[in-house]
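During the no-cost extension, the postdoctoral fellow (Dr. R.K.) reprocessed legacy sequence entries with the updated structure-token encoder. One reprocessed record is reproduced below for audit purposes.
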Amino acid sequence: MHILLLTVLSMFLANALPYAYGLRCVRHNLGKRTVLKMSSLMNHSTQEVLNERVRLALVEAFGDVGKVADTMVLPTKPEFGDYQCNAALPLAKKMGQKPREVAEKLMNTFALKDVISEMDITGSCYLFDLLLFSLIYLLVHSGPGFINLKLSSDYLKNKVNHMLIDSSRVGIAKVSNPKRIIVDFSSPNIAKEMHVGHLRSTIIGDSLSNILQFLGHDVLRLNHVGDWGTQFGMLIHYLNTNKKMSGANDCDDVGVAIGDLVEFYKAAKKKFDEDSDFQEAARKEVVKLQSNDPETILAWKKICDLSRREFQKIYDILHIEGLNERGESFYNPMLPNIVSELEEKGLLVESEGAKCIFLPGYTNPDGTPQPLIVKKTDGGYLYATTDLAAVKHRSAVEKAQRVLYVTDVGQAQHFEMVFKAAKEAKLCCNHGFSTELVHVPFGLVQGEDGKKFKTRSGDTVKLIDLLDESVRIASEDMLLRAQQVDNSVKQLSDDEKNAAKIVGIAAVKYADLSMNRESNYRFSYKKMLSLNGNTAPYMLYAYVRIQGIKRKAVEGLSSKISDVEFTKKEEIALAKQLIKFDEVLKEIERELYPNKLCEYLYDLSSKFNQFYEQCPVLKASNAVEKSSRTSLCVLTADILQISLKLLGIDTVDKL
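Re-encoded structure tokens follow.
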């Protein structure tokens, strides 16, 4: 036994003493550099602060070879701390050293004076009884040299208290260098009803716009509607021939519904396919449209106005605001110049009478080079031509630094080729910078059987019908719950009807946004309206519950919020989740996946439930404890409300 104890003790000393020396070196080096003041520090996410400190330490310890990208990651297991620095492993490979040796040297160079109080070695890193810093605890394990960081209670309290100051932004500062960002989304076709396929583009694009704007960027939301092309000649000729729109001077006089237009379009297409005389007349109508013939332009405007009004009804239901229509017709006058510019730059090749760009690496199924056609044999233009014109306008005129195209994954190759062609032609290089072009693809909405989402008759599901059905189910569910409490209730009140509408629309939006946007997902009213799991109803009920706790808790308090203090691990766990909010938004800013925010909210709700079960708020043991826990409730409610708003979802105070 004595031999075993001596062996353990020798192992302890062998591992602990080097760290003790190294940690004293950290304290010794703290005064060598100027670091952020606490007030400035709080305006940055924890991950940003740690990344910056590690970068400084890497360069100081290893010179230019230490210049690496962001090195802070979230650990895979809670026992590895709150953050993890993984710089040692790749750096050790570069330098031919052991990762642990690199990690030790890096630790000795950390500069954290602005967040560190006096340090004492209270144990050894080998036994996981760790160093107390006012920002972090440092842990080093044997093995690949990962440095695991655990946030200190002082830093956590300061960060939470900073977030409590402003309920509208919860301490999140706007970016110091805002970008001009265009988000191209929704893009329905004129003379057609919006269907379930437009849902994803509309709500993903809207949520990304909200988040980017919240972070301080200058966001322009564009709706690239399909409002130009040969199909309009066909439809206008059919309408004029059948006296459907003649004599009307504006949309109010037309007396035609969007559903009628869809049927007329189907009838016109059938006539076009079967009648050569109709084909010729339709083509002449296209020429008149392109030549700005007054009567033809008037008919076209009537169709566009009618469609636009129907689109707006959907946008109002979905709370889509600030969306600027910039349809294909807007870019049409620019197309001849785009083709001329591409010719002047030697990028166009004539192939079978069409003018094309051949980009390396793209082939047809038979192995022949695949062209990007910009002008057809008959002189007509294609989507690629319009998209290239849009790129140039957005870069040169709108001065966009970043353009996001939110469309289905099926258009991935199209945009890939358009972006490469635009770069070859330098259409996106203006004002001393190159506009970043990003395709934001999304998968399909499927039925519960995993097949294409259709009505029973096999038609495409209209978006308005889908939304109405969700509201109907939410209303029935809410009435049933009310009747379980009071069986004399026969119908919902106006406030309850409004709440049911909010829940119904929120359920559809959240179910979509909570999925990885590149995945297909199965549409299920039952799942999306469930009160359990990562759903909108669950989040809305969580918000209502916290609001109720908060209202009761603030009664008798001298202030709605106060500085927080931690006495239980559940309080600390909740606080750590709360301060990750800005990191999640910045991750979405980079990666463009709104589901990351939904995942964060679900984790936040779970952490709050654990906190509330173990940490009484209304029956806290003393006034200080009650006030502190009330502050955590306030901040949780604020973040839930802000997050749901960023996702385009309204909250309710009562359900």
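The longest helix spans residues 2-29. The longest strand covers residues 354-363. The remaining legacy entries will be reprocessed before the final report is submitted.
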